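Reviewers of the previous submission asked for a worked example of the structure-prediction workflow described in the proposal, so we include one complete record here. The input consisted solely of the amino acid sequence. No template or homolog information was supplied to the procedure at any stage.
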Amino acid sequence: MQIRVAVLGCGSWGTTVAHLAAHQAPTVLWARRPEQADEVNADRTNTTYLPGYRLHEDLRATADLEEAAPFVRPWVPVMSLTKGIEQGTKNRMTEIIGQVLPGHPAAVLTGPNLAKEILAGDAAAAVVATPDPVVADTLRLLFNMNLFRVYTNPDVVGCEVAGALKNVVAIAAGMADGLGAGDNTKATVITRGLAELSRLGVAMGGEFETFSGLAGMGDLIATCMSPQSRNRHVGEQLGQGRTIDEVIESMSMVAEGVKTSRVVKELAETYDLEMPIAQEVFAVCHEGSTANDAYRGLLRYPTGPERSGY
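From that input alone, the workflow returned the following structure tokens.
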């Protein structure tokens, strides 16, 4: 039976994933705005989010959700492309899939995946996380191609927690850029940030090894270092003295780490964990602190045994 794919969301990453899938299977991309769908169909472009890049010739777009919905038959796998945790419930994305579409195998695609680099044909790797090895391998083969390498991991919790929390650390890394700090400072933030997200991820049921892989360290490095990273950009602007409201108002895309920082703070309290970097990012994003305040605040925390970064 031929695999068919529907991708819901015509932002930069949704469009990129639909472009990849179209190489292997008939794919339809759902856009909220009809003009976006028309542009994809007529010009093979999405200039709002991916200017200068051409999409696969066989990719089809629609603004009619019912037109895409028939692809979601019973038992069909549903894969999350979103890196975040729901406000209030603290549910991970696959948990939401389980509530909205019970009976469907839930998976997540994650890793160091900057949309424009993938469309440009640069080598990259990703992880499909789902507990069912048959579903995992089917999805791996759907997206795996020459320069886009896809691996599998049964640790859904670890992969999702890593993908959500790295955005918070990326804001901290961006603040270091905005403040003019050196590479030593940024490397320290990334490394200690990895320790924080590993600590929380394991407490929530993830496997420690996941956080040293593509879903953890790989995604964290890409998001903290790349000028294309939305969350790093937010931090950089905060470091240069702009307020969080000014930064968000100036952006056309969502920086997930701003809202996620609130959830991470609540989760740290629930599991009684010390997460100083996440705490300082929350204070800047939601309590009026500045980037300078955040970095001075981090110096208040005592040092001690590193315990292999954990």
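The chain has two domains: 5-156, 157-298. We consider this example representative of the routine output the project will generate in years two and three.
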